[in-house]
Q: What sequence folds into this?
Protein backbone atom coordinates (compact mmCIF):
# COMPACT_ATOMS: atom_id res chain seq x y z
CA UNK A 1 0.00 0.00 0.00
CA UNK A 2 1.51 3.33 -0.93
CA UNK A 3 1.55 6.43 1.26
CA UNK A 4 -0.81 8.44 -0.94
CA UNK A 5 -3.48 5.79 -0.62
CA UNK A 6 -2.99 5.48 3.15
CA UNK A 7 -3.13 9.27 3.51
CA UNK A 8 -6.38 9.43 1.55
CA UNK A 9 -7.90 6.81 3.86
CA UNK A 10 -6.82 8.79 6.94
CA UNK A 11 -8.30 12.00 5.54
CA UNK A 12 -11.57 10.25 4.68
CA UNK A 13 -11.76 8.71 8.15
CA UNK A 14 -10.94 11.79 10.24
CA UNK A 15 -11.70 15.47 9.87
CA UNK A 16 -9.10 18.14 10.59
CA UNK A 17 -8.50 21.48 8.88
CA UNK A 18 -4.72 21.26 9.32
CA UNK A 19 -4.13 17.62 8.47
CA UNK A 20 -1.15 18.29 6.20
CA UNK A 21 0.74 19.74 9.17
CA UNK A 22 0.45 16.37 10.92
CA UNK A 23 1.17 14.04 7.99
CA UNK A 24 4.73 13.18 9.15
CA UNK A 25 3.58 12.34 12.69
CA UNK A 26 0.59 10.35 11.48
CA UNK A 27 2.89 8.18 9.36
CA UNK A 28 5.36 7.78 12.23
CA UNK A 29 2.51 6.59 14.44
CA UNK A 30 1.19 4.26 11.73
CA UNK A 31 4.67 2.73 11.34
CA UNK A 32 4.95 2.17 15.08
CA UNK A 33 1.53 0.50 15.17
CA UNK A 34 2.44 -1.69 12.18
CA UNK A 35 5.79 -2.69 13.68
CA UNK A 36 4.17 -3.60 17.01
CA UNK A 37 1.40 -5.60 15.35
CA UNK A 38 3.85 -7.42 13.08
CA UNK A 39 5.95 -8.26 16.16
CA UNK A 40 2.89 -9.64 17.94
CA UNK A 41 2.14 -11.85 14.93
CA UNK A 42 5.72 -13.14 14.90
CA UNK A 43 5.48 -13.93 18.64
CA UNK A 44 2.22 -15.80 18.01
CA UNK A 45 3.95 -17.93 15.37
CA UNK A 46 6.91 -18.55 17.67
CA UNK A 47 4.93 -19.38 20.83
CA UNK A 48 1.83 -21.12 19.47
CA UNK A 49 3.36 -22.84 16.45
CA UNK A 50 6.99 -23.33 17.44
CA UNK A 51 8.10 -21.53 14.26
CA UNK A 52 6.68 -24.47 12.31
CA UNK A 53 5.34 -23.28 8.96
CA UNK A 54 2.91 -26.18 8.46
CA UNK A 55 1.52 -25.76 11.98
CA UNK A 56 1.16 -22.00 11.52
CA UNK A 57 -0.77 -22.58 8.29
CA UNK A 58 -2.96 -25.22 9.95
CA UNK A 59 -3.78 -23.22 13.09
CA UNK A 60 -4.36 -19.88 11.40
CA UNK A 61 -4.98 -16.71 13.39
CA UNK A 62 -8.20 -15.29 14.83
CA UNK A 63 -7.69 -11.89 13.17
CA UNK A 64 -7.33 -13.29 9.63
CA UNK A 65 -9.29 -15.16 7.03
CA UNK A 66 -7.41 -18.38 6.29
CA UNK A 67 -6.48 -17.23 2.78
CA UNK A 68 -4.99 -13.97 4.07
CA UNK A 69 -3.11 -15.74 6.87
CA UNK A 70 -1.68 -18.26 4.41
CA UNK A 71 -0.49 -15.41 2.17
CA UNK A 72 1.23 -13.71 5.12
CA UNK A 73 2.91 -16.95 6.20
CA UNK A 74 4.08 -17.80 2.67
CA UNK A 75 5.07 -14.30 1.54
CA UNK A 76 6.41 -12.71 4.70
CA UNK A 77 7.12 -14.73 7.83
CA UNK A 78 8.68 -17.77 6.15
CA UNK A 79 10.56 -16.19 3.27
CA UNK A 80 14.31 -16.77 3.14
CA UNK A 81 14.92 -13.04 3.55
CA UNK A 82 12.73 -12.76 6.66
CA UNK A 83 14.10 -15.93 8.27
CA UNK A 84 17.71 -14.86 7.68
CA UNK A 85 17.08 -11.41 9.18
CA UNK A 86 15.14 -12.89 12.10
CA UNK A 87 17.95 -15.33 12.91
CA UNK A 88 20.56 -12.56 12.77
CA UNK A 89 18.43 -10.39 15.06
CA UNK A 90 18.12 -13.28 17.54
CA UNK A 91 21.91 -13.70 17.60
CA UNK A 92 22.38 -9.95 18.07
CA UNK A 93 19.88 -9.80 20.96
CA UNK A 94 21.61 -12.76 22.63
CA UNK A 95 24.84 -10.74 22.70
CA UNK A 96 23.28 -7.86 24.63
CA UNK A 97 24.24 -7.64 28.29
CA UNK A 98 21.40 -8.16 30.76
CA UNK A 99 18.82 -8.13 27.96
CA UNK A 100 19.31 -4.38 27.52
CA UNK A 101 17.76 -3.30 24.24
CA UNK A 102 19.30 -0.40 22.35
CA UNK A 103 16.63 2.19 21.52
CA UNK A 104 18.51 5.40 20.76
CA UNK A 105 18.73 5.12 17.00
CA UNK A 106 22.14 5.64 15.46
CA UNK A 107 23.57 7.50 18.46
CA UNK A 108 26.39 5.86 20.42
CA UNK A 109 25.43 4.33 23.74
CA UNK A 110 27.96 4.87 26.52
CA UNK A 111 27.93 4.57 30.30
CA UNK A 112 30.32 6.57 32.46
A:
Amino acid sequence: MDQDHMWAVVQDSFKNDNFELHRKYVFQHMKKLWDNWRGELKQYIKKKCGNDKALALERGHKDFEQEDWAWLIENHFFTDKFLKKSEQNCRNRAKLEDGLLHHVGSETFQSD
In short: The CA atoms of residues 7 and 13 lie 10 Å apart. The chain has a mean pLDDT of 86.
